[in-house]
Every structure is written in structure tokens, then in C-alpha cells.
Amino acid sequence: MSESPILSVEAVTAGYGRVTVLHDITLEAGRFGNVGLFGPNGHGKTTLLRTISGLVAPKSGRVVFDGKDITGLSARAIVATGLIHVPQGNKLFPDLTIGDCMALGAYSPRARPHEAENREKVVKLFPKLAERWRQKVRTLSGGERQMVSIGTALMSHPRLLILDEPTLGLAPKIKDELCTAVMDISRGGVPLVVVEQDIEFLLELSRQLFLVDHGAVKTEIRPGESIEHSEIMAMYFGH
Amino acid sequence: MSVFSDIFFGGLFQGSLYAMMAVGLALVWTTIGVFNFSHGVFMMLGAYFAWQLVAFGLPVVIAFPLAVIVMAGAGWILQASVVRPLIGRPNIVLVVVITTLAAGSLIENGALTVWGPRSKQLPSLIEGNTTIAGVGVSLHQIAIIVITPLILAALWSFLNRTRLGLALRAVAQNEDASHLVGLNVTALYGLAFAIAASLAGLAGIFMGGYRFMNPSMGADPLLKALIVVVFGGISSISGPIFAAYLIGFFEAASNYYFGLYWTPALLFLVLIATLMVRPEGIFASRSRGLA
Ligand SMILES: Nc1ncnc2c1ncn2[C@@H]1O[C@H](COP(=O)(O)OP(=O)(O)O)[C@@H](O)[C@H]1O
Ligand SMILES: [Mg+2]
Questions:
Q1: CB B81 within 8 A of CB B103
Q2: B195 phi, psi to nearest 5 deg
Q3: How much is the pTM?
Q4: Is B170 in Cβ contact with A75 (below 8 Å)?
Q5: What is the tens place of the pLDDT at every residue in A176-231?
Q6: Are A95 and B173 in contact (CB under 8 A)?
Q7: DSSP state of B85
Q8: What is the rounded distance in angstroms from the CA atom of residue B194 to the CA atom of residue B70?
Q9: What's the pLDDT tens digit per position in A99-118?
Q10: DSSP for A213-231?
Q11: Non-local CB neighbours of B135 within 8 Å, separated by 6+ positions
């Protein structure tokens, strides 16, 4: 079962200016399927994902994706490897239409040949987007914008998709819809790394969880280890 | 009738020049979020490059386009030297005002050294005059009135109909998200400056064909372009284009009825009144985007 990890973060230290947010963080992803990350707000989950995708340059340590050292590569070079990051929030491109966003998703030379096929996948996953293809992003609801975010990432033909709080701030009904879509993406064969506050969803989606606390991995939960929801909640809040 | 056509042609002509200048300023603001205060110097440089190429003996049909292309390179270089190193700094807007002003003054003095203070003139796009609706206009002016909308339309379709244009519009709206779809943000910034410098250079060539050129010829057009852009709303390129023509017509009418002397003051009065009613047109606007 345990293959080599698709993504490994080795003793990475990173932050903003003089502020260090990640302290020697180490984790491996993909050996046991999807990976879930959780932990209190402001402890560096977003910073970790931004470091992986090249938006933040690490001060030390290594990031290896599918056997290739991607530490310090530009975000563009990392997109070209197929590691695709759906950022937190859904600010996106407010004045572009959904169609424009999808075209942008397929901008990289790697994704362009698959544009039509991926567009079909996105439309099938999010039929709502097809109805609003020519509508500007700023006019969409929060849930719809999250769909555009994820759809744009799928247009980039991901080999690994990292999602930063995809259901943050959404109403229950639309949240369920997105959770289902994320599960569908996973079943479609794209491995996921997901940051989420909703532990139930993470437990359903992934077989390996990491608790990120003060910029480091505090606890790792492996598949097979039976774990109670209440225990996780205790870890979450009990520090 | 002749009064009307006088104002009409004068307004169209001035509006064309203003639009050509303002659109580049707006393009750079919307994509990079900085104001390029060497934009007026780009205009001057375009005119002088064209003059130099003509002086080398090149025919106008080659010299003028070549000067515009050289200006694209100049814009790219300026961006790489005084803007790119500052990207990501929180006070970038103010710092770039200073660095582009400094670069502009350096280039202006360079031009003074190379070409001297004596006024020069470029050949017209088309020689000759004609009479339309009772007013005498030069064919050069007619050419500018016709060429400008064509170029602006080409720019509009580039931005709205091509993948590269889409990328430029995207960078204007969200830099992080642009990185995450694999856009070459640095190159797109360079491209925005290159296009802006070319358009300014072309405006310089237009101006050099009917007025004497000197190394500080770009100062007034820069000021006008700033007014146009502030007046028209900064977060698009269609706003400034509209405003450019509006101000062109206003000036032509005001020149006719109140005289050259009062026109600048009246223009500022209208500008201030407009901004009191619609303040979101100006710098304060948080959203950037090309449309
Ligand atoms: N752009 C930034 N500049 C400076 N500090 C930041 C920036 N973004 C996040 N931080 C800080 O880094 C820390 C970790 O934030 P973040 O990675 O967003 O945590 P999480 O995603 O776990 O909530 C916080 O203290 C936050 O204030
Ligand atoms: Mg976060």
C-alpha cells in the first residue's frame, strides 16, 4: 500500500519578512491517499500551502513533488509540474467572466492540450457554472465563486490539487454540494491535500490527517488508527 | 455651422491625442498599480527617435513604426530598471512616483544633451490641407483623428479577444491568483509598460508633426493624461478614452468661447466639480481591472 509520497515537505522554515510562521515543518503526503490538514486559525496552514506552491519562498528546507525538488521554483514553474493550488477565500478575478477564468486555468502549456476535455469535466461537476458562463465573477455568490476557483484549478490539469478551506463561510446546503464535488474530484483520480475546519469532512475525505499548530506538525493521524471525532476535537482545542 | 465644425474637429483632434496618452497611463495603473510619471518623457522620446530615424534618411513609413517599436523596448527597460525591483513593497505607489519622475528627468536631460535645445519638427503623416464642412483642417489632423480610434480599437480587441490580453487583464485584478494559474507576471508587467510607451511614443510622433518638439514637450501632455485618467475613472481603459474625448471637446469649446487663457482654469473647475459628485473615479478606487 505505501507508495512513495507524491509530496514531501522537509524541515521547511518560512514566513513573511522577519516574521517566521513555519518552523521546521515536515510532512509527507500521498502515501495513503488524500491528506487533510487542520488546526487553529493563524498557525500557518495557508502559509504552508503558499510555500508549497511557490508564492512564499522558504528560508530553509526542501519541498519535493513527485521526486522533483521544487524548492524555490517560481509559482509558474510549479504550476507547470501539475501541482495546483486553490487559494483560501475566493477573491479570484472579479471582473472576468467564468469562461475567462476557465481559459486562464488552461493557460499553462501543459494544460492547454487538455482544455476541451477539462472544460467538460468542470461543467459536469458544476453545472451551475455552465449556466453563468458569461457572468462576471464579482456577481456570483460565495459558493459559486468557490466553484469557479476549483474549476479553474481543474482546467490546469492537476496531478496534485491543494485546497485551502474550500468550504469556508458557506451555507450548509452549498457546502454539502462542494464537499460532494471535492469527493468526486478525488474519485476521478486526482490526489488531494485539503486544509479544512470541518473535521467530519476531512475524516470522510482523507486517510491521513495532520494537525498544524504553531507552524509545525503537532500530531499525525495515520490510516488504520481508529480515531474518535471527540479525540480530534480535544487535540484541536486542548493546548 | 463653421463654429460647430471648428469645435468638433478641434475636440476630436485634441481628444485623440489625450486618449492615446491616457490609455497607456491607465494600462500601467490597472495592471501594475503604479503611476508612471515618465509617461510624458516616453512621448518626447518617441518623437525624437522618429526625428532621428528620419534624419538618418529613412522614409516616414519605416521611421515612424520603427520608432514606435523602439519605444516598446524603452518602456520594457524602464519597467525592468525602476519598477520591477520595487514590486511587492507596501509603499510601491509612492516610491514609483519618485523613481519614474527621476528616470524621466534623467532621460529628458539626456535628450537635451543628445539632441540639443533647438526645436525640431517631424514631417506630417500626410502633407496638405483640406476643407470639411467649412473648416480648413490639415490632412495630418485628419489622419490622427482616423488612426487613433483604430489603434484604440485594436488595443481593446487585443485585451478582450486574445489569450495574452486576457492574461494582462487577469494580472490587473489579482496577482496571486495570476501566479497560481501559471502566468508570467513579470513579463506581463513588462508588456504593459511596453504597450504604454509605444502609445505615448506614437502620440509624440503625432504631436511632432504639427508642433515644434523640445525635450520637455511631454510635461504638459502627461499632466493632461493624468487629468483625463482621474476624470474618467482609473479602473478601466474605456473610462479614460471616453474622458479624453470629452475633455478634448470641452477644451475646444472653451477655447472658442472663453479663450485659451481661461480654459485650463475652467477645466480644473469642471474636474473638481465632477470629483465632488463622483469621487470614486479617482485614486481611491480599490478595484483595478482592464475593460
Ligand atoms: N501576507 C502576510 N504578511 C505577514 N504576515 C502574514 C501574512 N499572511 C499571514 N501572516 C501571518 O502568518 C501567520 C499564519 O497565517 P496563516 O498561514 O494564514 O494561518 P492559517 O491558514 O493557519 O490560519 C499569522 O500569524 C498571520 O498573521
Ligand atoms: Mg488559512
A1: yes
A2: -65, -45
A3: 0.88
A4: no
A5: 999 999 999 999 999 999 999 988 899 899 989 999 999 998 888 876 666 666 66
A6: yes
A7: G
A8: 9
A9: 999 999 999 999 999 999 99
A10: ETTEEEEEE-TTS---HHH
A11: B2, B5, B6, B9
Given a cut of 70, whether residue B280 has pLDDT beyond it is no
Residue B284, in any domain of the structure: no
* Residue B285 located in a structural domain: no
Is the reported ipTM for this assembly greater than 0.90?
Answer: yes
Chain A residues near residue B289 by CB distance under 8 angstroms: 94-95
Q: Do B173 and A79 touch (CB under 8 A)?
A: no
B72/chain A closest Cα distance in angstroms: 24
**Nearest CA owner, ligand 1 atom 24:** A42
Chain A residues with CB inside 8 Å of B183's CB? 76, 104, 107
Structural domain includes residue B69 = yes
B288 inside domain? no
Using the mean position of ligand 1's atoms as its centre, give its distance from the Cα of residue A18 in Å.
13
Residues of A with Cβ-Cβ distance to B166 under 8 angstroms: 96, 100, 103-104
Alpha helices in chain A (DSSP H): 45-52, 75-81, 98-105, 115-125, 127-131, 142-155, 172-187, 199-205, 229-237
* DSSP character at residue A163: E
Question: Cβ A92–B167 below 8 Å, yes or no?
Answer: no
CATH numbers and ranges of domains, chain A: 7-237 (3.40.50.300)
Overall domain count for chain B: 1
Number of Cβ atoms within 10 Å of the Cβ of B253? 19
From residue A53, give the alpha-carbon distance in Å to each of A22, A26, A79, A111, B39: 15, 16, 8, 17, 36
Polymer length of chain B = 291
Under DSSP, the state recorded for B120 is: B
Ligand 1 touching residue A45 (CB < 6 A): yes
Ligand 1 neighbour A102 (Cβ under 6 A): no
Burial class (CB in 10 A: 0-12, 13-18, 19+), A222: exposed
Which of A156, A239, A208, A183 has the alpha carbon at shortest distance from A36? Answer: A208
Spatial separation of the C-alpha atoms in residues B28 and B35, rounded to whole Å = 7
Q: Which three cell numbers stand for residue B241?
A: 478614452
Identify the domain containing residue B126 by its residue range.
2-277
